[in-house]
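Predict the holo structure. Ligand: heme C.
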Amino acid sequence: MYLKYLERGWASRHLWSGVSNLCRLTYIFISVVLIAGCRGDRYGFDAGERFQDRDGHVEHAHEIDPTPDNFPPIFISDDNPLTREKIELGRHLFYDKRLSADESMSCGSCHIQDKAFTDGLPTSPALHEGEFTRRNAMSLVNIAYAPSLTWVNPTLVRLSDQAGAVFFGEEPAELGGTGNEALILNRLKSVPEYVEWMSSAFPDEEEPFHFGNVFRAIEAFEKTLISNDSPYDRYIAGDLEALSDSAERGLQLFNSERLDCTHCHNGFNFAGPVLSANTVNLEMEFFNTGLYNIDGMGGVPSIDRGLMEHTSRPEDEGKFRAPTLRNIEMTAPYMHDGTIETLEDVIKHYARGGRLIPEGPYAGDGKDSPLKSRLINGFEITDSEIEDVVSFLKSLTDETFLTNPDYRDPFGEI
Ligand code: HEC
Ligand code: HEC
């Protein structure tokens, strides 16, 4: 079976090399049934198509490949080649408040460039006054390489699907698309530039102006959000002056057996497994880092049970994806619910081997959570070593990324 659960995570897809045509057909059939069944095919996408045609049936020349020299090749779906027109269209749509029911919100309201595409809040105000997202807005840094999207959804693997999920989502409504589809589409269609750009971005379609293409254009823009020019990158490229002594010591600590950060935040993206055009088996990993232990049995706040919501397996309660640490200095507060304010406190949480919440409704010692990952065991660390690790994490801040005019709000509001 292709949806395979690994000891440490998921291997959800098997790419095509060496698979016979019959298998491929069976696979397409199974994945369409499985995935369409799981999350609905409401925007007319075939979820299986993301990995089709990897061995050569590329119909469109990919006009733009945003892969930088020092990273692996970005996976670009054959049905959504990146072109300049499409990326520009996507950038406008990403920042366009006309995409929300009452024209008050855009993707950019919660994903702000100079905060590495987060919003600096524990959770984000949603469309309706007084409502908040249940999780911390994620950074979109190097999002093209994420094997699955959001803090923990092994079935959400495609950026255009994720954009659709936000648009139609109702718990809480973020853009309020559901019930307002025609209103919003007509509003967008009334902008002459959009009509023109939709045609040039999707030249093969007679009627290109539909939500599927709105989300594909946003996906194209998101795939260009590449951060690869931090002091750390310059250091790795040979500029030994790029890191301070403290950051250099921090890098060694980060990589050390004692701290073991790299077990979960590794590779060029300081994250779990990545998706690239070279990926053969797409792996996903989710971990419980011992933030909660409400009932002594590893209980977490009922508002968010983590991976368990997708697998129904009790042992998956409180598991989340290890996100990239690039530009992490800019994305406080931290963790899926934004409950750790500083990087110092994140390191102290790991050093303790779990978080102690002394009182209140979530009281409990995460250190003793039976659901905590075997890799979170606590370690000795001095205050000056904590400072060093923080200096290293700050060396992942990439000013070029944070100020890149290609990522900026074209409406000049953000
Ligand atoms: C009201 C705030 C808000 C708005 C508006 C919003 N987002 Fe998000 N975004 C979030 C939150 C919160 C998460 C984490 C969701 C989760 O884990 O369930 C997130 C997660 C994501 C992720 C996953 C990142 C990752 O590393 O997996 C992507 C991609 C994303 N958003 C893109 C978008 C796009 C595109 C739009 C517009 C169509 C949008 N967002 C609008 C708050 C928002
Ligand atoms: C067992 C795997 C694992 C190990 C080991 C680990 N992390 Fe994490 N890390 C995660 C996961 C999973 C999350 C998200 C947890 C959550 O939100 O519930 C995370 C979140 C973070 C965050 C917050 C990210 C954000 O966007 O809010 C930082 C910072 C971080 N880790 C740094 C470190 C450092 C430094 C170390 C080493 C001391 C380390 N991690 C060790 C898995 C791990």
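Strands lie at 4-6, 9-14, 281-285, 356-357, 364-365. Residues 74 and 276 are 5 Å apart (CA to CA).
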